[in-house]
Amino acid sequence: MHFSSELFDSHPRYTQLKTILMDMFNGQVIDSICLSGLEHVVSVTVAPTPSDLNSASSTSLPRVHVRTYTLKMLSSGVKTPRAELTPMGPHFDLVFRRNREADEEMMKAALKRPKIAKKDVESGLGKKRKNFEVDEIGDLRGRVHVGRQNLDKLQRKKVKALRDDDNLSVRE
């Protein structure tokens, strides 16, 4: 996802929209990306910004244009290839109409994180256990290792259509 406006970092309603879109598309904020691994681009832009948009309570906010593109790499004669964007769809425009701020207590409860010391988070909640990790929020995640399986002795359903018999007769 590419957000191309300074409003996504400065205006409170646009920063809220940015976090909603990043959560919806399961995106992460990154600084750089390898062009060879890039296939699709979701571009989020803001229509031309009016000069009176300095206040957070402005009633006429500009539209947000969301466009999706496929990326095609073309040779450019230098080491970095030339990236060409081809419209893919869906394309849609968003308009801010209604906004209601959450209560302070409810917002505080929604953003509350459990109190865990940093050393506990890094060590896995106390005594170090194998194959267990704790993320920043405090959720405990485990990794399961399965031994090598012999697939030759696997019990499978025998289907007549897949049998390798030479003496099958054809009904007429």
Helix segment count?
A: 4
Structural class: alpha+beta
Q: What's the number of structural domains?
A: 2
C-alpha Rg, in Å? 27 Å
- The percentage helix is 10-25%
Average per-residue pLDDT, rounded, comes to 78
Strand content: 15-25%
Distance from N terminus to C terminus (CA atoms, Å) equals 61 Å
The sequence of SSEs as H and E is: EHHEEEEHHEE
Catalogue the unreliable spans.
none
Overall geometry comes to extended
Written description of the protein model:
By secondary structure, this protein is an alpha+beta fold. The chain has two domains: 2-103, no CATH class; 113-146, no CATH class. It is built from four helices and seven strands. The strands form two sheets. Strands 1, 2, 3, 4 and 5 form a five-stranded mixed β-sheet that branches. A hairpin with a 7-residue loop joins β3 and β4.
Task: Describe how the helices and strands are arranged.
Layout: E1 2-4, H1 7-10, H2 12-24, E2 40-46, E3 64-74, E4 82-87, E5 92-94, H3 104-110, H4 118-123, E6 132-134, E7 140-142
Parallel strand pairs: 1-2
Antiparallel strand pairs: 2-3, 3-4, 3-5, 6-7
